[in-house]
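Late entry, written up from scratch paper. The run itself happened at the end of the previous shift, but nothing got recorded in the book at the time, so transcribing now.
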Amino acid sequence: MVDTIMDRIKESNVEVSSPDRNLKARVRYPGHLTLGFRPRFYPEYDEIDLRYQLEQICAVGSTEYRRNLHKIAGQSEPTGDHWDARIRRYQAEQDDLVSVGYAPSELIAVKRIGTAVWRVKLVPGVLHELDEKTFTVEFAEAVARLLSDREMKMIALKDKHFDLNLPAFVRKPPSPPRPVTW
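Output as recorded:
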């Protein structure tokens, strides 16, 4: 069997830990997240500390995942300004692109700005309302929805800058279900 780049991407995964080392996340193609707490640490968190740990683990995980994809493809990460003005404008807008995802319960919201800034919103009391397993599933779903939102917005952005001639419903992705005060 021929080992293609896509085969290697599908088999790859990245594991990262939170700054306090009490959370681990695994990111695998196409951006699926699995989150786990060290035994007995979930009840020890308050919403503020957990939010910080989740934001950091998402930022590091997405950066490492992107680096891994570039490595598999035999490319270095892009640096500096591109010679093509369309690509420069596209990259500038990509750096400001805001994506949002909500957990099914709407107790957790995740926002990504550009490629590196992540924000997590936890409704007060969420850690008492959701047990550890439910929380990890809800958080992973919020991230999956964010990535879906981002993918649709990236397609629309590519159409805007590179004239992909996409239908109107693709060019204007739907709004998130409700606004979140960050």
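The radius of gyration is 18 Å.
(Scratch paper discarded after transcription.)
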